[in-house]
Design brief:
Order of helices and strands: HHHEEEE
Helix content: 40-55%
Largest sheet: 4 strands, antiparallel
Strand content: 15-25%
Strand order of the largest sheet: 1-2-3-4
Radius of gyration: 17 Å
Number of strands: 4
Length: about 130
């Protein structure tokens, strides 16, 4: 039974659109999802996690105009927590409105610029 499910999931993932995987957050989402899924559920978990991660990554693709509108530099806040996409920033981190894109916020944390969803404070993109 598990073998049949695994084969079905692999086939479904191979049939997924290749163009969606070309985007950086999609690829990163697939990679992170596969790694997490494999750690939890073995090979089958890796396939499922990769597929779900790719879908989530595609959903949070940030337009280049937003990335380019975030000023470089600025005073960095240092936090002990590791900054991870999908995790909220600590309450002590001040969020700034992205110029011309008020639906996004950004912060400079541990010398990294991050784009944040303002309602949940979750990091949606780390800008290198």
């Amino acid at each position: 039974m598990n073998k049949r499910v695994a084969v079905s999931l692999v086939a479904a993932s191979l049939l997924a659109s290749g163009s969606a995987l070309a985007q950086s957050t999609t690829v990163k989402g697939a990679h992170e999802g596969a790694r997490t899924g494999a750690a939890i559920g073995g090979p089958v978990g890796g396939v499922v996690g990769g597929t779900v991660g790719a879908a989530v990554g595609a959903a949070v693709e940030i337009p280049n105009a937003v990335i380019n509108a975030i000023p470089s530099g600025g005073r960095s806040v240092v936090v002990e927590e590791r900054i991870v996409v999908g995790e909220p920033l600590p309450p002590a981190v001040e969020l700034h409105v992205v110029p011309s894109h008020t639906e996004y916020r950004y912060a400079v944390v541990n010398n990294q610029r991050v784009i944040v969803e303002p309602r949940t404070r979750k990091v949606i993109r780390i800008i290198n």
